[in-house]
Specification:
By secondary structure, the protein is of the alpha/beta class. Helix 1 runs antiparallel to helix 5, helix 7 crosses helix 8 and helix 11 runs antiparallel to helix 13. The N terminus is likely disordered. Pfam families: DUF5753, HTH_31. This is Helix-turn-helix domain-containing protein.
């Protein structure tokens, strides 16, 4: 298969289609599980794209749903085959947030609210190294370097001149004040942040301390949107041992509205650049 096949996105699309076929048949996930002698949780994981789907799974489900059009079955079988291909990130070994990387790789736009640190796509290598080493004190040098390399590889979407990721970030002032590494490293990071904020497809806004309480007070999240209308938007919330992906339209709408409030309360683009530049100068003293 071509190298641009994204297994994560293929699984999502296939899962959505299998869910649609089940609903057309008027069956519950529990009923399907009983017919196939599998757990209901397996059916749910197949439909939400969090589990690899084999061609045998597709064949069995199409049998239960009485899909008679061989073209549909063949198309779904090919999607199952594509979904088992490996994305670029698999070359780095076991990455805890590989599902997110797959989504981010295929996303057309990404909206991020980050209250604690500079967002990963806008980090310098030195900042990323210090941040990851500090956040994962029990990890060895090799694991830290692997995670840094993955982060740098992800940043290619920001620097892609042909198909760049449309990135909008709102950063809390705390992320600029928290000294990761040392002051010189922070100065370089903030200067780099100002530089990236001038790219036409990157928007950076800062939410200053004096803004007080705001809708993002509960923590970090990201909203991913995709070029294909068939792929629903996803809200991603990072966790310590597991991550949360919200795809229901009502959930995505709530987080989108919350993000609009954050944008409105944050400094505008020009004031943000000056704000960041002023803090960078403080680190140079």
């Amino acid at each position: 298969m071509a190298s641009n096949v994204n297994p994560t996105v293929r699984r999502r699309r296939l899962g959505q289609e299998l869910r649609r076929l089940r609903e057309l048949k008027g069956m519950t996930a529990e009923e399907v599980a009983e017919r196939l002698l599998v757990s209901q949780s397996k059916i749910s994981r197949l439909e939400n794209g969090r589990r690899s789907i084999s061609q045998r799974d597709v064949r069995d489900l199409c049998g239960v749903y009485e899909v008679e059009d061989h073209r549909i079955v063949d198309s779904l079988m090919q999607m199952a085959k594509d979904s088992r291909q490996q994305g670029w990130w698999h070359a780095f070994g076991d990455i805890p947030y590989s599902v997110y990387i797959g989504l981010e790789t295929d996303a057309a736009s990404l909206r991020v609210y980050e209250p604690q640190v500079v967002p990963g796509l806008l980090q310098t290598r030195q900042y990323a190294e210090a941040l990851i080493a500090g956040a994962l004190p029990e990890s060895g040098t090799t694991d830290v370097e692997k995670r840094v390399s993955v982060r740098v590889r992800r940043q290619e979407r920001v620097n892609d001149t042909e198909h760049p990721l449309r990135l909008w970030v709102v950063i809390d002032e705390a992320a600029l004040r928290r000294i990761v590494g040392d002051k010189q490293l922070m100065r370089e990071q903030l200067e780099y942040l100002v530089e990236l904020s001038q790219l036409p497809h990157v928007t950076v806004q800062v939410l200053p301390f004096d803004m007080g309480a705001h809708p993002g007070i509960n923590g970090q999240y990201a909203i991913l949107e995709f070029p294909d209308a068939a792929d629903s938007s996803v809200v991603y919330i990072e966790g310590v041992t597991s991550d949360l992906y919200l795809e229901k339209a009502n959930d995505v709408q709530k987080y989108s509205v919350m993000y609009e409030h954050l944008r409105a309360q944050a400094l505008n683009v020009d004031h943000t650049r000056q704000f960041i530049a002023d803090i960078a100068k403080e680190y140079a003293r």
